[in-house]
Amino acid sequence: MNPDSAYNLEQRRAWEMISRHLARAEGYGLRLEILDRTRPYLAFRKELAAFQDARFKDFCTAACFNDSTSACCSREGIVTFFADAAINAVASTPEQIQLLLHTLANPRSDGRCVYLSNTGCLWQVSPVVCAMFVCDRLEREVLAPNPDLQKTWDDFQAKRKFFTWPDRPVLFDWLEEKFIGEGLDSPLMYLHKSPGLLKIKAKAGIL
User: Fold this and answer.
1) Measured between alpha carbons, how far is 87 from 43 in angstroms, rounded to an integer?
2) Residue 178 phi/psi, 5° resolution?
3) Backbone dihedral region of 116: left (phi > 0), alpha (psi from -120 to 50 degrees) or beta?
4) In this predicted structure, what is the pLDDT of residue 65?
5) What is the pLDDT, as a whole number, of residue 24?
6) With CB atoms counted within 10 Å of each terminal CB, which end of the chain scores lower, N or C?
7) Would residue 185 count as lying in a domain?
8) What's residue 113's pLDDT?
9) How far apart are CA 11 and CA 133, in angstroms?
10) Is residue 167 a contact partner of residue 203, using CB atoms and an 8 Å limit?
11) Total tally of structural domains belonging to the chain
12) Nearest Cα to Cα of residue 176 among 161, 162, 164
């Protein structure tokens, strides 16, 4: 993979920006504020991970992981929000962040996600798009035959929107706003840059 591809550059610059700012003295208060504001989201992610381990893990391991056919970790195939990176940054050690930066500067040459190492994903709190990904086969063979399981999964989808969907004040929008207020900018700030998401915010009267 080209380390200077548009995708890789956007990812790397966002990470460099966040890590530099949080390492400064003025970033310390923001780090503490993010830790406090993200507690409900991290609780949601913990609940989600426990559900997936109990209900999806065996299927996914047999269906895709063992033979590396999964579409969920493809090269430049994941959407990362600026808020994803900010949350992961405060949940990571400086060494873990440096490993991410090194990986982005020296990406793997195969077709896999740049963040995928030999021991798994390099994120401590993976992007929400990754966390919520289910393939068509899982939907067809696991969720569809089990209405109760489908209902639980639909409930998780609704909970995700509580943090990410800007038809009300949400965590992901707040995180972008905080860094914008600190004078920072990134193409990954989709809740302030995506025309579709801006329309949702305008309709909700929160622009």
Assistant:
1) 13
2) -65, -45
3) beta
4) 64
5) 83
6) C
7) yes
8) 83
9) 20
10) yes
11) 1
12) 164
Query: Within its chain, how far is the Cα of 3 from the centroid?
Result: 20
Q: Which helix (H) or strand (E) holds 117?
A: strand 116-117
For residue 1, tell me if it sits in a domain: no
- Close Cβ partners of 108 (under 8 Å, ≥ 6 residues apart): 1, 114, 116
Name residue 21's amino acid. Answer: H
Helix, strand, or coil here: 77? coil
Establish if 134 belongs to a structural domain. yes
CB contact at 8 A, 16 and 101 = yes
Range of the domain at 115: 6-204
Residue 48's CB is within 10 A of a number of other CB atoms, namely: 17
Looking at residue 30, what is its pLDDT? 87
Q: CA 53, 97, 104: angle at the middle one, nearest 5?
A: 90
The pLDDT score that the predictor gives to residue 23 is 86
Average pLDDT over the chain, rounded to an integer: 89
The pLDDT, as a whole number, for residue 71 is: 64
CA 163, CA 60: separation in Å to the nearest integer?
Answer: 26
Q: Is 186 helix (H, G, I), strand (E, B) or coil?
A: coil
> 102 by DSSP, 3-state: which?
helix
Terminal alpha carbon distance of the chain: 38
Exposed, middle or buried by CB within 10 Å (0-12, 13-18, 19+), for 18? buried
Q: Which residues of the chain have pLDDT under 70?
A: 1-3, 25-27, 65-72
pLDDT digits (tens, 9 = 90+) for 153-171: 999 999 999 999 999 999 9
**Residue 73 included in any domain:** yes
